[in-house]
Amino acid sequence: MKVLIRAAICIAALVRCPPPDYETKPIPERGYLLRSTVPHMLWFMAPIEAARLRAGVDYPADLSQFDRFFPDEEACASYLQGLRWPDGFVCPKCGHAAQPWQMCRGLLLCSQCRTQTSVTAGTIFAGTRKPLRLWFIAAWEIVSHKYGTNAATVRRLLGLKSYETAWSWLHKLRRAMVRPDRDRLLGVIEVDEMYVGGWDKGVYGRHAEKKVIVACAVEVVDGKRLGRVRLRQVANVSGEALRPFVQEAVEPGSSVFTDGWGGYRGLSRLRYDHMVINQSASPDPAHVLMPGVHRIAALLKRWLSGTYHGAVSREHLNYYLDEYTFRFNRRASRSRGLLFYRLLEQAVQTEHSPTDDFFVGTGRGPDSATAKARRKSRR
Fold this sequence. Notes:
Elements: H1 2-15, E1 32-37, E2 42-47, H2 63-69, H3 73-84, E3 101-102, E4 108-109, E5 116-117, H4 132-144, H5 151-158, H6 163-175, E6 188-196, E7 212-221, E8 225-234, H7 239-249, E9 255-259, E10 273-277, H8 286-289, H9 291-307, H10 317-329, H11 336-347, H12 369-378
Parallel strand pairs: 6-9, 9-10
Antiparallel strand pairs: 1-2, 3-4, 4-5, 6-7, 7-8
């Protein structure tokens, strides 16, 4: 009888568990634990595979275990190899699945076609001249702190000589924080836009011109609790910019709450249950009528001002929004080590981006006119 009672308690704990610390994509071969929150019928899908990951075995649980997991470069490369090929090495050229030969230079040699492959090739670590352990420390710093870290802190921590190196590393890790094939939001969704940037004297709301427009969509559970969030910079507040964002972020059939702005017209024709809240006709302020998106806006602006001191450019804002999305959607995770595991797992699946690409079109970087003038003045 006691065994049955304990089993019932375990099942109830699984059903009542908070949203998973990462977003999932349904895989037909694997089972899922489903949880419904009535009356919104919002389903969270947590793959059973996540329960098999063990702290201290599959990932370090704290900083002391981090040092034991990654004492040298060989351990870091072996960990990346396991994340990149979890079912065993597969040659990227011929597709042969077999144990590769380990070369003295750290390369993997395919036993069939004799192609040499690097563990970091095709990932965000490709072409790096710094030790992988420094990359791992930077990734740990990002996920282990509640509000993240900035490039100046990473530079001091790792002893890097160049600020640009630490800055580009963080941007490459941000690119790995969001999967392109992630699930769309489902259930009851609040959608609105916010304005991020400096203070425009005498200009308010949608009349602001110097600020950046960020579209926001957030799941609302049980009327108060928030689920996942989606953020993206948009060019303007027209329907041509807002409707594609909703289509990309929200699953058709969901209930979408917006204000009365004309840019959201036509969502009903896109198979959404569109609910319009007329804020001007209500005595309550906007943050009372739509608390979810306004809470996200306040937290996002506070995070940008606190961690990065507001020093975020228009060209790179989407990467910072990806980092905030990564953090917010995994806020219920009880293990920082599991977040580290997920970040590296997605990093080995993200294509390499040269550092110069981050400076293209921004007027910044070592090849910009400002940098050249600065170097010329020092001579």
